[in-house]
Amino acid sequence: MNRPAAAPLLAASRTAQAARVRVPATSANLGPGFDACGLALGLYDELTVTVTGAGLSIEVTGEDDGVRDETHLVVRALRAGFAAAGITPAGIRLNCVNRIPHGRGLGSSAAAIVGGLLAASALGGGRPDIPEVFTLACRLEGHPDNVAAALYGGFTIAWHDSDGPPRVARTDPPEDLRPVVFVPTRRQSTAQSRVALPAGVPHADAAMSAGRAALLAMAMSGGPRPRSGGAGTAAVASPGTPGPENNDRAAAGPGNGRRRGDGQNGYAGLADDRLAGFSAGRPAGSQTGKQVGNQHVRPGAVSWRDALLAAVDDRLHQPYRLPSMPETSDLLARLRAAGLAAVLSGSGPTVLALAVDQDQAALARTCAGSDFSVFDLPVDRDGARVELVVG
Ligand SMILES: Nc1ncnc2c1ncn2[C@@H]1O[C@H](COP(=O)(O)OP(=O)(O)OP(=O)(O)O)[C@@H](O)[C@H]1O
Ligand SMILES: N[C@@H](CCO)C(=O)O
Fold first, then answer.
1. Where is the GHMP kinase C-terminal domain (predicted)?
2. Hey, whose CA ends up nearest to atom 3 of ligand 2?
3. Cα(380) to centroid of ligand 1, in Å?
4. How far apart are CA 332 and CA 355, in angstroms?
């Protein structure tokens, strides 16, 4: 991206000296929602970006690829964000606490990009322009699924309207959902994993996957629901708003209780008078969603729990990718045989099991074998957060 010719210099002596960002891990696709669906998970990378007098310094704790120059992904995102804000910092000190494993299918690159852009946007002055961050992040990442979930939290579906900016619909998955991730030691980059995909798929496979993707969206919204519990509606975030315009808080029934994530990860301590906090996924004063219809669960009909197992089956990407990941493929087979909705997480090789309660999560863990590290990760419902540290 070209920097404006007369970009004002952001000096180290500005009142706002640093931005702190926390971004969740994400699992993309969830089976048939290829390049569209994403789920935010409670594992976080944290960045602190400080404007200095000159130069670039990078400190990394945790997952580290050893890059210490302008090619560092967070720095690339920062530069793009500063350019969009029309400013040039005199110098940058970047401190990264990386908890999301790299090249495993848990959205590390999306987290790095969203983190860098949010920090730049906050340091540029004022409230971060979230739709603009989303648009830039999609451009840098190349696809919108991880980025949408990282920015907005919860379960997201992202898309492009022909030439328009990317858009996102988000909802809160059922409270009982218990994601379990199985992370192998070996890496596989998204670029490598996309090479295995065919240019086209048979119409029957596309039709099957479209149906399952629709079922996935319904299941992750907690539907179908009995009339007494009300119906949920997905919220659509439009460009020009800092987050979803509507939220699915209409239903008071099971699975729709709310909690705020603040404080759950030790981050609440940052919220003192010297910090201004923004959360992309949870705009203040959000409106109640409009009901779009109720559905009775009659004998023979499926609940969201039953629907999930069928919903995660797809013929768009997993069948093409799994042959190059035999351990992952075997684990998926074991989990599915045990009745779990298990998928390749993003482009792999991590496996995500969407357990529908604690018992299923415990069952999932018994399937792991010795090739994987297993983590119970709650759904992140808040998305990325940025705090501006004032002098
Ligand atoms: N925090 C970070 N700091 C610097 N570079 C990062 C960071 N996170 C990711 N990267 C870069 O992104 C690469 C991984 O991106 P890739 O898209 O291949 O996998 P992923 O994002 O972990 O998985 P997926 O996109 O399938 O969910 C790393 O090898 C590294 O180059
Ligand atoms: N939708 C992407 C997610 C990984 O970044 C893919 O499957 O390639």
1. 311-366
2. 346
3. 19
4. 13
Q: Is 125 exposed, middle or buried (0-12, 13-18, 19+ CB in 10 A)?
A: middle
For residue 233, pLDDT beyond 70? no
- DSSP H or E segment with residue 170: strand 166-171
- What the block records as the tokens of 193 is 């994993």
How many Å apart are CA 325 and CA 260, to the nearest integer? 37
Q: How far is the CA of 110 from the centre of ligand 1 (A)?
A: 7
pLDDT, mean over the chain? 82
Torsion, Cα 10 72 371 188, to 10 degrees, reads: 130
Query: Per-residue pLDDT averaged across 336-360, rounded?
Result: 97
**Is 164 assigned a ligand-binding role in the annotation?**
no
Distance of CA 122 to the CA centre of its chain: 20
Q: Is there a binding annotation on residue 212?
A: no
Ligand 1 binding pocket (C-beta < 6 A) is 28, 45, 65, 72-74, 96, 98, 102-110, 112, 146, 189-190, 346-347
Omega prior to 349 cis, within 30 of 0: yes
CA dihedral (296, 300, 301, 307) positive or negative:
positive
Question: Cβ(158)–Cβ(148) under 8 Å?
Answer: yes
Contact 110, 146 (CB under 8 A): yes
For each of the domains in the chain, give its residue range(s) and CATH number, in order of start. Answer: 9-171+235-292+379-390 (3.30.230.10), 178-225+297-376 (3.30.70.890)
* Shortest-distance ligand to the CA of residue 194: 2
pLDDT band of residue 162 (cuts 50, 70, 90) is: confident
pLDDT at 297: 52
Q: Is the Cβ–Cβ distance between 183 and 375 less than 8 Å? A: yes
102 is in an annotated binding site: yes
- Of residues 51, 45, 60, the one with CA closest to residue 95: 60
CA distance 246 to 127: 20
Ligand 1 centroid – CA 309 distance (Å): 29
Per-residue pLDDT at 372 exceeds 80: yes
ipTM of the assembly? Answer: 0.98
* pLDDT tens digits, 25-46: 999 999 999 999 999 999 999 9
Look up residue 379 and give its DSSP letter: B
Kindly report, residue by residue over 104-113, the tens digit of the pLDDT: 999 999 999 9
